[in-house]
Amino acid sequence: MSLTLFAVQTLNGLQFGLMLFLVAAGLTLVFGVMDFINLAHGVQYMLGAYLTAVLAKVTGGFFTALLLAMPLTLLLGLVLERLVFRPLYARGHLDQVLATFGVILIVNEAVKLAFGAAPISVPVPEILSGSVRLMDGLLFPVYRLAIIGAGLGTALLLWLVIDGTRFGMLVRAGATNAPMVSALGVDVRRLFTAVTAFGAMLAGFAGAMVTPILSVEPGMGDGVLILAFVVIVVGGVGSIRGAFIAALIVGLVDTLGRSFATDLLKLVMSASTANHVGPALSSMAIYLLMAGVLAFRPAGLFPSRSAG
Amino acid sequence: MTRTRRDLLVLGLMLGLLAALPFLGLPNWVLTYTARIMAFAICAVALDLVLGYGGMVSLGHAAFLGIGSYAAGILLAENVNDFFIGLVAGAGAAGLYALVTGAVAVRTKGVAFIMITLAFGQMAFFVANALSEYGGSDGLTLWSRAEIGGTRALARDTNLYFVILFFLALSILIVRLVTASPFGIALRAARSNPERVTALGYDVERVRLWAYVLAAVLCGVAGVLIANLSSFVSPALMAWQRSGEFIIMVILGGAGTVWGALAGAFAVLILEEALSLATPHWKILFGLFLILAVLFTRGGIAGLFDRSAK
Questions:
Q1: Which residues in chain B touch residue A95, judged by CB atoms under 8 angstroms apart?
Q2: Chain B residues with CB inside 8 Å of A37's CB?
Q3: Predicted ipTM?
Q4: What is residue B305's predicted lDDT score, i.e. its pLDDT?
């Protein structure tokens, strides 16, 4: 385990964590403000990736594709909210699970029908290709640095919106006590629509950003969705700050665990046992982390509802 | 009173029909396919205890099925061939996993509970994928079924069919007895008013935890049966979509009526099979059906027969 490898994997973990944050941010607001469980949020991530991949092929430019894909994911979020989610706000969690599960089945299969089951790859945009030398013997791909920058930038922007605007104030108030916000004369239905569509676009943005480094394929949103759940539960449902910190922790623990668990285990057990136990243990790491946090803080690190 | 009697009548009729099936001279695949549905129906019945009676939306129940089948599969791969050892190991392993993860999960509620059960289910899925010496993500092929008392009685499909039917009936009996007991009444009462149940002196978290564990044990048994039936175990058994499928079975059948879970299991699996014969993209139709069913019906199949059902 060398220092440079550790540095590279830390940066990779940071990049992964920031992407998780973009998916989890919208989702935690939807949970917090509407108490609505949306399993179809991962689908938005996948649609963002597909729209970017397909548009990049058509227009020939990654950034044009990204710019076109964002309003489209926002629009898809609006359509889904209108058709499926809105009638479900007043229902129990069970109905919400079932209907949004149905949305996943439909969209995953529709994507397969439209673009085939084979993974699509997107080339890294010209000006962000290549690697940059960060320190002695440490080369890091420029594109991954760009993702880190975009993730941090979006997080900052999100913080400014949530913390400094009237819309953000309503969202924060809604996450603490939605019926009270409604009683004060705010049209919560419009607030709900805005939060859902906004969250869909953030997830779509995450999906779009990873297209050059991951393969775009049907069902790619499902795994991310579950990781985003872990992030939200650890961070505290409804808390953007919690989601940000938890996403970075989960991203780092998962990435570092996968690269170093086996090597670390070899210090305390035989090499062949470590080779078997290591992969199993590293795939459990983030869930053990979640269990550990919840054992001490059942409402997560930063609970947003005081009487939750 | 009449409703209970009618429920029992429907249940008896369904089990009687299943018991008569092997004598109707049907092709063998009908028998093994029905046996497979019955094993999944055990999970649906078990989940009904947690979801229908307990009001806990668990999205990780496929993990218990998978743990049960992996316990049985690994024992068979290591040449421990006795069926009952496999059964105890599968049920025990699933129950233990439920006890540990459930202790964390029952402390939370609402959306957090759903997400946590899903996450723990996914953890079991990834561990199964990482078990490289037992097939990893490809799964583990079993060369023979388990033995009962040193004989290879289960090698005959009809015998295994009746074993699965027996465990299905036993699971239904257990769930019925439990829900009628003081424990079950506390569990049902905690669904609508946990504060009042706590005031009556019950530890609501503990009641929920034991219901969660019992359901997992039954799913573990189903896993052992599935492993023997298909002579193959793979991580796909505990994919999170299967947990969703179990919820669909319970809800479509009508939560909180035991025969409903049984009917739901048959309805969902036969519908999936029929749709997949019609088009390879059947999931679009199934998803559409699901959304429409949620938006426009209440109470599932059982609800269609019973207007007074909630």
A1: 294
A2: 111, 114-115
A3: 0.87
A4: 46
